[in-house]
Design a protein that fits this description.
This protein is an alpha/beta fold. It has 15 helices and 8 strands. α4 packs parallel to α6, α6 runs parallel beside α7 and α14 runs antiparallel to α15. It is globular.
């Protein structure tokens, strides 16, 4: 299905949650196109985000390389890093022309490099600029324009501050807000620490949704299983899962059945690996390396018998220059053939 921000989440007692926005977070160096193709073998319906791409890279760099994706990756959102409304609008047009299902503005990433470029979490301190970006983008495209943000930055962490930011982007026409439920410290903490140290405050995001009932809102941060995701959907329109979906990708296997379609299949791990073979063959034939793909598959058998051996074989043998599908077979031979489904 194509994700739109305006879908409502109507729940039945036992069935799936139509329209829920279950997504996999944008993660630099992790949510590459190879990882997204792999994730797509696990869930057909979750919305997948690209890594952040800066407006500078798209306008001055190898645009086609940054925008390329496999048609099977839909629904897919392009995440942009930037703060110049005209440049953001140009890049939104590129996203639309390339068939992306959503374009998202990064207002959550606290890294130094990003602060220097005036984008990411520091933009929370400039709500009007973010609003101007949203408005400029909405004026040029008819796809959903969404904003991924934090609950605050540095000492600007009051509820009123978050409310004012939200009001600005909502009034500018943003189709949805994705809130990482912790603030960011712009200096003093590394990006990694900024994903762990500031405490999560889900209640604040729930309150924000209650204050902005017409704005589709997803929550992000620390969600590691589908029961928790379902509980969040009692308050919000969507749930975005980051690190757990990467490190333990099979956590997403029941997403389609649980949140989208009661008849959806839950793929077995072995089926997921089988579905990757053709993609890997093509990747190798095009001159790519096995590890470009298999590095994202290391966690597939997390917690399963043979799961460590799977990871070890793929990581030790996968980086060799001549590594091919035989490495995948060798890894597969180390895991239980009769694994349970989610
Ligand atoms: C390796 C890595 C790279 C990330 N890169 C981005 C990024 O490019 N853009 C972004 O908005 N957030 C980025 N994030 C933050 C995630 O999107 C997410 O907000 C964060 O990990 C919290 O969610 P989680 O607890 O489910 O992982 C990154 C996180 C990780 C672990």
């Amino acid at each position: 299905m194509t994700a739109t921000a305006t879908q409502t989440s109507i729940r039945t007692a036992t069935g799936p949650t139509p329209g829920a926005r279950i997504s996999v977070a944008p993660m630099m160096a992790w949510t590459t196109r190879e990882q997204r193709y792999f994730m797509r073998q696990i869930t057909r319906s979750a919305l997948l985000y690209t890594e952040m791409v800066t407006t500078g890279a798209l306008i001055h760099g190898d645009r086609e390389r940054f925008l390329a994706y496999n048609a099977d990756e839909h629904p897919i959102a392009l995440q942009l890093g930037g703060s110049d409304p005209a440049a953001m609008a140009d890049c939104a047009v590129m996203a639309q022309d390339h068939g992306y299902d959503e374009v998202n503005i990064n207002v959550g990433c606290p890294s130094d490099r990003v602060q220097n470029g005036t984008f990411g979490a520091c933009l929370m301190g400039e709500p009007q600029r973010v609003a101007d970006c949203v408005a400029a983008m909405k004026a040029r495209v008819d796809m959903p324009v969404t904003v991924k943000t934090r609950i605050g930055i540095d000492h600007q962490d009051s509820y009123e501050f978050l409310q004012a930011f939200t009001r600005a982007v909502a009034d500018a026409g943003a189709d949805a807000l994705i809130v990482h439920a912790r603030k960011a410290w712009l200096s003093g903490l590394s990006p990694k620490e900024n994903r762990e140290v500031p405490p999560l405050d889900y209640a604040r995001v729930h309150a924000l949704k209650a204050d902005f009932p017409d704005l589709a809102m997803s929550i992000n941060g620390g969600i590691v299983d589908l029961d928790t995701a379902a509980a969040q959907l009692e308050h919000l329109d969507g749930v975005m899962i980051g690190r757990e979906a990467y490190k333990n990708p099979y956590v997403m296997a029941a997403v389609d059945r649980r949140f989208f379609d009661a008849d959806a299949d839950i793929p077995r791990r072995g089926e997921i690996v089988a579905a990757m073979r053709g993609y890997i063959s093509n990747h190798l034939a095009a001159g790519g390396a096995l590890k470009d793909v298999t590095r994202h598959m290391l966690g597939l058998y997390h917690g399963q018998p043979g799961g460590r051996a799977w990871r070890r074989v793929l990581s030790e043998q996968g980086h060799r220059k001549d590594a091919d599908l035989n490495v995948l077979d060798a890894a597969l031979a180390r895991v239980e053939p009769t694994e349970a489904v989610a």
